[in-house]
Fold these 4 entries.
Entry 1:
Amino acid sequence: MTRDTDSAVKKGTESHSLRHVAELAGVSVATASRVMSGSSHPVSEQTREKVLEAANQLSFQPNRLARALVTARSHTVGVLVHDISDPYFGEIVKGLEDGIHAEDYRLFVASSERDPQKELDYVRAFFAHQVDAIVFAASSLTDAAYAETLEAMAKRFTDGGGVIVVLSDHLLRGAKVWFDNKRAVSEMVRYLHRRGHRRIGYLTGPSDLEVSLVRLAGFTAAAEELGLDVGPENIANGHFTAVGGGEAMGELLDRVDLTAVLAANDLMAIGALRRLHSAGIGVPDELSVAGLDDIPIAEYGPVPLTTMRVPTYQIGLEGASLLLKALRKEDADDVHVTGEIVERDSVATIEPEQ
Amino acid sequence: MTRDTDSAVKKGTESHSLRHVAELAGVSVATASRVMSGSSHPVSEQTREKVLEAANQLSFQPNRLARALVTARSHTVGVLVHDISDPYFGEIVKGLEDGIHAEDYRLFVASSERDPQKELDYVRAFFAHQVDAIVFAASSLTDAAYAETLEAMAKRFTDGGGVIVVLSDHLLRGAKVWFDNKRAVSEMVRYLHRRGHRRIGYLTGPSDLEVSLVRLAGFTAAAEELGLDVGPENIANGHFTAVGGGEAMGELLDRVDLTAVLAANDLMAIGALRRLHSAGIGVPDELSVAGLDDIPIAEYGPVPLTTMRVPTYQIGLEGASLLLKALRKEDADDVHVTGEIVERDSVATIEPEQ
DNA sequence: CACGGCACGGCAAACGTTTACAAGGCGGCG
DNA sequence: CGCCGCCTTGTAAACGTTTGCCGTGCCGTG
């Protein structure tokens, strides 16, 4: 006899297994499994009800780990981000979660703080927990040893049926969700142009970051296309930070006479705003300022910032959809997401000169 | 014979099990398990090395699900937050993660958006995935049916050896990390008092939120203690939002003559700042403003806000430590965390009057 | 009336671990 | 020289599922 034949009695605490349900319903474990897991193997309506009733009575919850062991599907996915306290990644995670919730997948979250060692650790841990997919929301690290190890691990993972999704530029291959940074900046420049601005300055980011190069390219491309006169003196490096943005704004002020300034990210734009404020220069009356990203702060800075929203939530959502498709072995194209301009109070319409 | 005796050959792709390691090392699965899991059961140094070598060669990764099945410890914990895109919760999650990383635990994250149904769903899912502990970073929802169901589920969980940790005021019992909101506000009032302020206004939050009541109590208690003259006219409701804060600030302006205003949260303080700015009232020269929470925006608003930092990261960290202790069946007291004042530019020192 | 097929249910193996128990070998002690 | 006990290893059961395969009974059809 099994070691607790009294199982039909105690239905108070403790967690119950399929065996308890089966016994209570007076059927075999196999049958109980079939009804609980929605198997295609037919079960009579009568026994189905008995089982359901029993399961309900015991508040039975199937053990996903056991199920995963035999089906080789854990119904979990791991997501790796650089910093979970950054709303940028928080939004992505939220999108991912909302996207996979309906299909009953769960999310492991790991925040690497850009530490290659930690990143590898976390990925390894994901493997150990048999995740069905891994999402890289973090962007590539440059450490060579890291890259090599990661690539090898990723190969094993995909060979074993694992799915990899990439939500940023990353060395790894996998289903991809793509935000076109170059185009985004170009669009902002065209927007300023439409509003009458011709003498436009640009606050750029650190030159060793891929994304800041790409965004800069978007600026120069649009300027050329529109026949704007922007030389190197129109561009200053603000290192993607608020204080850097303030200083870069100062440089521009000393150097050139502008009607508008575009910052490669919102943080620098906010810094510029602060600087202009303390210099007594009115925004947008005397000078217009625009940013890019639409971070939460953008709305609450010295003056509400006009910027372009990067659809982080949507990126997560699309990532989830890609991931689910891949798990179903459907193939799907990479998806392309675009931002939209959110107009607040920092840009004025002026009479185009020249 | 086992179905793939060729296992010793293929060490390219695919994932390997303990059996493969054992075969390659020429030992039994049990022995391999003992060395890989660091069992206390003795193994000779020689065989230990053989096994390690084999595991290394195959890049063996133990399957945590299988291990969990037999040890009844999944080495996972689930955390429930209200909104993962809110840095407040992001910081908490980061602290938690950092705290459990060393002990090799992983984190399931779920963001409920304050939806009772979703919240129950997620908790149920955590159970199904056999988490060892659940952390409630979200605060209590008032829905009665929800409360009842949750309580019942929680009881089953703890009865089964699960651990519950609570990081905010919540109906659930469990190990608790506690930030004293009342004391925090009182401390801010005392701070303003030290800086010479006697006529102080207060921007309060919605009265149906426990936390805003508690914070208000902190204000009145401190005012009384210091012999400040604060009647109802000194208090306005800003609903915890930026626009609400701006409006409430307006009311106060019409009603009383103040030297300082304390907001129950930073968002309202920022709103007040904006309002004062557009009314041409200088901060801090003509009026001082202080907030509470130290959200990221606080530093970048119209004027850098003096506020009190709620140690969210530390809350997560302490939660992790509590959780690990409970899992080890050590008992631990609830922990009490305190905030610290961060002085920026929005509060002036003045000559105390009267 | 016989037989084929289908609907339904059970048996048992399998997933990858851990671990209680047993067994073998060897050294030490009486 | 015999026996006890320890050190090391192996055998096998167990964790909670799913699922291939088989058996039974019933119904329909020829």
Note: Residues 1-12 of chain B have pLDDT under 50 and may be disordered.
Entry 2:
Amino acid sequence: MTDSMNFQTKCHACPLRQKNVFRPFEDKELDFVTKFKTGELQVEAGSTIILEDNKTPHIYTLLKGWAFRHTSLADGRRQVLNFALPGDLLGLQLAVLNEMQHTVTALTDTTLCVFQKDKVWSVFKDYPGLAFSMTWMASREEQLIDGHLLSVGHRNAQERLAYLLLHLHDRAEIVGYAQNQSFDAPFTQAHLSDALGITPVHTNRTIRTLQSENYFSWKQNRIRILDREGLEDLAAYERDVKTLRPLI
Amino acid sequence: MTDSMNFQTKCHACPLRQKNVFRPFEDKELDFVTKFKTGELQVEAGSTIILEDNKTPHIYTLLKGWAFRHTSLADGRRQVLNFALPGDLLGLQLAVLNEMQHTVTALTDTTLCVFQKDKVWSVFKDYPGLAFSMTWMASREEQLIDGHLLSVGHRNAQERLAYLLLHLHDRAEIVGYAQNQSFDAPFTQAHLSDALGITPVHTNRTIRTLQSENYFSWKQNRIRILDREGLEDLAAYERDVKTLRPLI
DNA sequence: CGTCTGATTGAGGCTACTCAAACGCGGTGG
DNA sequence: CCACCGCGTTTGAGTAGCCTCAATCAGACG
């Protein structure tokens, strides 16, 4: 373990902090986070990070790569709840509610910062700024899910796809995963389909339609937004004002 | 205002605490909450409690009555995100993210405890237990939305209705709003329809079908679960283990 | 008794679903 | 080098669940 510690990303040099998307830390907060972080975990594409109902003692921050949160009905129908990108906190429900009702799976090879969930209490006790950050992230996530619920509940297939594409692009862009209106898509049409609540077949047809109308392209795992305005109109989407997010 | 203060519910005598659903408070926490609470608000059925984009300086706890959270697309299609019952925190996103992306509207005449949102920081600074409670509530709400998203994304009309009925019943029961497998339904079919992501017409047909098959009844604004097991099977629903919730 | 809101029912149509087959492509092994 | 996977994508054909439009009904209220 000491060995792996040497290869560990130092919080003071956290690559996420270089990007100008996180609020500034106080020194003592950073010192604490460094102690709070008990290690780093590599999970390869397709593997489970946190399993529903499975109580691990850890929570994670996604440092590198993509993941997704999902639940299923008993008969196997799967809902993708949201995608996770660097900076996202995974397993907060486990720490706070002591229960996970969804699974988190890696889409790409990922790197995770590992924290002991039983130390979350000491965060609240001694580092109110960090505690606030955690709450910020929880609220933010809820806001995103609210958006998806609106989408799945009331948009048609084309609108849903347009919305999701813009959503993914914009989130990828914030963490430096998009350049030039395009980003690497580490998911399959089946993932999109389960996120949108549309069958794979119909998802495919919808994708083809929007592509043929030059709204976007998807070649070699790379998605490019070609007609942002058109997609925004389709989806009635408004880009969030970028707010500096906290990081833990 | 001094006048209304006299009619205010005392936190020490908070009726919600009488019901054995909230975690115990420490005395000093209770003292603080008493100070934190700046007043009480009555909102009548149908009125807006918090308006999307509208930055009020307050957040609320629902003390009495029903409310619902909702957003809409530009063309008016409305998604009911969730229903709120006593003990639920309203406006946390406002306090934490400084932005509300949904509206909260009263379904019945409601009583709300009013808190200054700019004091939320002092909660985090000085009352970690309460801060944790707020985060607990945020996480819990997210968990509920996740459940709805699964429902709207992957259940058919009958399954969605079954799920929502059980969900509402169980939540109502926890706060003492249900007796004998039945509860007062302060909403219309249109509300359900917007929550389920199904048109009012089809919602009506689905309701009639499930009623005619004796799954439940809905007479004089009162919903009664007649065949709980049947509904659970339909919806693949599992009742949550009751956990003591925090209260703020 | 007229009006309003919400619930209900009918008829017809379209979106999205199901079933099924074929295609493209990277990987593997003979 | 090529045949043979296996996974993900694509396309076709027929169907059904849910939608739209529209009218009627029931109850509350002034």
Note: The two ends of chain B are 22 Å apart (CA to CA).
Entry 3:
Amino acid sequence: MSVTRERRERERAQRHQLIITAARELAEAEGWEAVTTRRLAERVEYSQPVLYSHFSGKDAIVRAVAIDGFGELAAHLHRARPADPEPRQALHAVCRAYLEFATERPALYQAMFVLPTDVKFAHAETPPPLRAAFDEFVSCFRPDDARRELFAEVVWSALHGMAVLSDSGRIPSDGQEERLDFLVARFSDTPG
Amino acid sequence: MSVTRERRERERAQRHQLIITAARELAEAEGWEAVTTRRLAERVEYSQPVLYSHFSGKDAIVRAVAIDGFGELAAHLHRARPADPEPRQALHAVCRAYLEFATERPALYQAMFVLPTDVKFAHAETPPPLRAAFDEFVSCFRPDDARRELFAEVVWSALHGMAVLSDSGRIPSDGQEERLDFLVARFSDTPG
DNA sequence: CAGGATGTCTAGCGTTGCTAGGATGTCGTC
DNA sequence: GACGACATCCTAGCAACGCTAGACATCCTG
């Protein structure tokens, strides 16, 4: 339990995070198909096997990036929700923030919500930040409505669909604002 | 221009389709990650290079599968839409049919709407069956409403989100029916 | 200072998508 | 019917992939 050991562990933890951020940067710059273990190793200036001493495999690295993303998304949505919760404006703000997040960090978003994953959603083992992000949607609906979780699921599904279809060029990305307005108009508790 | 030549071309066309259906079956049975050029070649009882005399690469095979799927989806949605178009029931029927299609042919659905593609959506070069499928949604809204295309985009996005999030285990698949009901209630022209 | 644990690298395995080049067979012409 | 031209198909191989075994170096401990 020497001082050296502590330093080692600290360095190891730093390198762990370095791998995660390097994977994320590489993915954001060139897409996930460009993130190979060789390029990643080169980028962190270690050899390939070092990656495997930190993560069980490439999937685990992607998962680590995704989990980092959940925290950022939760924070981003929370910042966007106005303090005075006029319900419809709150929903609009949160939805817009969600689409912003997806558009500005497409690779991160893919790691979180598109790539195959074994992260548990809506489950006891769900990462707390992920649950927190989802709750930002739930909180946009009336607390006394028993179906607000259902509402949140559908709104989230719609936003996710808009995000991925737009990102993959399947719907024109310049109509996103209009679609957002329409979605919120239809889903907010206070119609009109 | 001999008879033999005609037979050759006929055989070639058959083999072309054989490759497509083999790829699709393999994907439906074991997922797209199991569809390798070697396994596909083995399945059609030819060597690998034969695939490349029909398609420019693996992506082109996936695209061909997807395009087949567009036709089937359009037909499936059209069958589902009732002749007497009570608007809300029509929308409900088409939406349910869409989700059915996605759940029952998940690999085909992925080829069409998830995997990277260069198929043109909402464009002059859009495959007609794809446009026809989209129009089944558009037709669920009042013809005099200039924004019905927008409505259709958002409904489609929501359904797509529900389909992929459920398929990848990110929302529980047994809530799909409830979500569908809620979606249609909020989006149909005739509220209530 | 020796011995064992820890950390890191080189080298290589099996698989992937894809392609070059040779063998085989079929066709139109003399 | 024999022959050159052509089309068809396969064997063999390339580079890149995720991942791992085993050798080397380095450091802490007794």
Note: Chain B has two domains: 1-55, 60-192.
Entry 4:
Amino acid sequence: MAYRKTPAEIHRLTAAREHLVGCATRVVAEVGWSQASVTAVADAAGIAAGSVYQHFPSKAALAVEVFRRAAGREVEVLGEVLHGPGDPVERLARGVEVFARRALENRGLAHALLAAPAEPAVGAERLAFRRRYRALFAEVVHEGVATGALPAQNGEITAAALTGAIGEVLVDPLGGPGDADTDALLADLTALALRCAGAPRS
Amino acid sequence: MAYRKTPAEIHRLTAAREHLVGCATRVVAEVGWSQASVTAVADAAGIAAGSVYQHFPSKAALAVEVFRRAAGREVEVLGEVLHGPGDPVERLARGVEVFARRALENRGLAHALLAAPAEPAVGAERLAFRRRYRALFAEVVHEGVATGALPAQNGEITAAALTGAIGEVLVDPLGGPGDADTDALLADLTALALRCAGAPRS
DNA sequence: GAAAGAAGTGAACCACCGTTCATAGCTTCC
DNA sequence: GGAAGCTATGAACGGTGGTTCACTTCTTTC
């Protein structure tokens, strides 16, 4: 044999791959899936279109990777908050707030993850992650029902409503174009969440 | 002059157009916007691909027409229920129930209207109609707040949550594939809606 | 330094799809 | 019946965008 990947080379390759995924994520967040052509992504990463295929077998595979990375981060953060300290109702409120705040802080990415038109492979991925968000919320709702803090209810539906509400607000900002008051919006959203779950009025 | 459209001819033309729109709606409901190519739609209507352009200047125009017809019906029905008799809370519950029931009865179409990936022109239309659904719900919520039946709240967000929740449930049926129990689902949804709006517990 | 092999390149390829257009078939009017 | 005008047709066109591939460039090994 006359060639073996040296550690430095391996590192260079994975770095290139990471760089590609990062740039692709940025492009998707900025212009959406439909406009994120292989050429556009490659340009953003400073490589040739053909080189993308050194790292991924197809555009769909790259897209799925981009989606999984970004959506995975959100699931992780949400999970930490929902499984953190505090009683179920508090955690639910904080979870909604964090989830929504992160989405509002990176609207483009959030839109891409939750709503923007995408190829079927990404659509399937989106479905899977929606289930995970929903499951996380539902878990806390069930907990609240068990401890008596919340009334009996279909937790899955409550959870669906929470993600749906945040998605709605993201897709079509109600307060006009400007972020007139993000904090107020977040406050309204958490209040909605507590009503949705049937938490006692404060 | 040697030619003028006779009434019968006019009727034939508009009928052909209607037939085209109807078939296109069916195709979209069955396979989604992305798979509803001009050829597929023309085939379904039993005409040549080129003939579509006798009735519509572009595929986008046909798509928009299909969307407007279908979404317009829903707005109308929802409006009638929400503006009908009964106190605001009752109307809200009935509105959610009717909206969701119709969606569940024609899942394919509902999915196309609310969620399925679509070309930009349809996306814009969708945004406009979402605002209308939302406005209708918000109106009733405001009414309820005014009469004291509901607590003070951001009605727009409550309305967004309601449409979002129904959309969520549609996109990813929670109870597995089967309609295990549509009535139970509807009951859970209306219960959710009332909690969302903060209606007194029954 | 030279051979061997991998990564990078970008122009060309190809499939798909909306759209057009020359042609054929019908309808209207005299 | 025939001229004029409209509608219907479907093969051909053109743009787009993912993918390929012969070739260049860089890295490793001896």
Note: Residues 1-3, 5, 9, 13, 16, 47-51, 54 of chain A lie near DNA strand C (CB under 10 Å from a C1').
